């Protein structure tokens, strides 16, 4: 019984580690996107200073598109990660059920 309990504990710890790694990955991607955004903003500011005012509306449109792009990427990433997290939670529930069912029978 102790061995199965320890195995369950190990599996839980592994799942938690996996979730933490996913969160860290998400944070890293967020930081990368923010850096990319800052870089793009600096580039656009430079362009604004260099180009004549006739191109201003076009540049503003470009800026808007470049601002929206990382947000869309992030949203896509979240949508991709969400099923993975749900799958992990489902696996965890199944493991818990597998380990708790024999115990329940033993008690009754």
Automatic annotation (TrEMBL):
Limits of the ABC transmembrane type-1 domain: 26-108
InterPro entries membership: MetI-like (IPR000515)
Membrane topology per record: Multi-pass membrane protein
Keywords assigned by UniProt, alphabetized: Membrane, Transmembrane, Transmembrane helix
Subcellular localization(s) per the UniProt record: Membrane
Coiled coil, from the record: none
Transmembrane segments annotated in the record for this chain: 6-33, 40-67, 73-100
Protein name: ABC transmembrane type-1 domain-containing protein
């Amino acid at each position: 019984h102790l061995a199965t309990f320890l195995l369950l504990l190990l599996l839980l710890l592994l799942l938690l580690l996996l979730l933490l790694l996913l969160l860290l990955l998400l944070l890293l991607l967020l930081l990368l996107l923010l850096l990319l955004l800052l870089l793009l903003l600096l580039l656009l500011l430079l362009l604004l200073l260099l180009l004549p005012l006739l191109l201003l509306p076009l540049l503003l449109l470009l800026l808007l598109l470049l601002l929206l792009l990382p947000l869309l990427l992030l949203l896509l990433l979240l949508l991709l990660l969400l099923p993975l997290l749900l799958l992990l939670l489902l696996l965890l529930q199944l493991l818990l059920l597998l380990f708790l069912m024999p115990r329940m029978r033993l008690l009754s």
